[in-house]
Structures are given as structure tokens and as C-alpha cells.
Design brief:
The protein has about 170 residues and is of the alpha/beta class. The chain contains five helices and five strands, in the order αββααβαββα. Helix content is about 35%, strand content about 15%. α1 runs parallel beside α5 and α3 runs parallel beside α4.
Length: about 170
């Protein structure tokens, strides 16, 4: 049974909004490639270390989520598997795989746009980043530019899945 919803922190901090807007541009690039439009950035002290968008279809790789790719690239940039002091920005609440990558990388903070009621692992279905049974925890802020982040996803899936409301004889 999913955990009861917790109040969403939605500080419209200038840096958080600025970075989420950059993530939305990346999501639009993914959409143009026919990928699920999710964009992600890893930032430390206001400096973008990496950015990525979904490439599952392009790479034929089910693990090629924007968040995981951005985390991998940030690790390479820092020449470290630990991303202490970093913030992950993602247009969609990370799934269990990506939330696991956040914890393995020791990312301090995750800021996401749209909640994911079907696969969200930070607030919606699970709260992995706050689970005291795990070695690492991360601060989670959801709902930053949620409307814009949700809209690009909704439009993508509306285009992909045309209405099934067919007239029946």
C-alpha cells in the first residue's frame, strides 16, 4: 500500500525554476526524437555538471532514462562515483531505478516537476530518498513547474495514443 501523501514543498526558488526550465528544453529535445519527454540536469553550486534526456528508444536501452544518464555523465565530469553536494533536476519524478541511482551517487537533493503516480519512487509510490533503512537520504522537492512538466508529457502521450473513442455500429 502506498504511503500517505506528504505535503509537497514547492519553493519557487529562482535557481530551481531556472534549472527546471533547462530540463524542460531537454525534454522537448527528447520529444522531437520520439522519446518520452523527460529531461534532467545535475548541478553543484549553481554549475551544471551534466544534462541528458531520455534515450531508451534511440539506444534500445531500457535503462537510458534522463536521470540515470545525467548522473553517469556527472560522475564522469567529476571523476567520482559520489556526487556529494549535487542536485538532480528532473522534469518527472524519478522511477525506482533512477531513485536508486540518486542514492548510490549520494546526491544531496532532488528537484522534480511532475509527480509520477504510476512509477514515482520519491513521493508518489515510494519514498526511497527518505527511507531510514538505507545508507543515504536526499532532500526531495516536488512540483517545481509541475504544470509545464506535466503538459509536455500529456501532449506526447496524447499524440502517441490517439483517442480510442470509436463509434460502434
Amino acid at each position: 500500500m502506498p504511503a500517505p501523501p506528504r505535503p509537497q514543498k514547492t519553493p519557487m526558488d529562482d535557481l530551481d525554476c531556472q534549472m527546471m526550465r533547462r530540463a524542460l528544453v531537454l525534454a522537448a529535445e527528447a520529444r522531437a526524437l520520439g522519446e518520452v519527454p523527460v529531461g534532467a540536469l545535475v548541478v553543484r553550486a549553481g554549475v551544471v555538471l551534466s544534462q541528458a534526456y531520455n534515450l531508451r528508444e534511440t539506444l534500445d536501452d531500457p535503462t537510458a532514462h534522463a536521470e540515470r544518464l545525467a548522473i553517469t555523465l556527472a560522475g564522469r565530469s567529476l571523476r567520482s562515483s559520489r556526487l556529494d553536494g549535487c542536485t538532480l533536476y528532473a522534469t518527472l519524478e524519478p522511477c525506482p531505478m533512477c531513485a536508486g541511482a540518486v542514492l548510490q551517487a549520494r546526491i544531496a537533493r532532488v528537484v522534480y516537476g511532475a509527480a509520477d503516480p504510476k512509477a514515482g519512487a520519491l513521493d508518489s509510490l515510494y519514498r526511497l530518498a527518505g527511507d531510514r533503512r538505507l545508507n543515504h537520504r536526499a532532500e526531495v522537492i516536488g512540483g517545481v513547474l509541475a504544470e509545464e512538466c506535466g503538459e509536455i508529457l500529456s501532449l506526447f502521450f496524447q499524440e502517441r495514443r490517439p483517442s480510442s473513442k470509436l463509434l460502434k455500429d
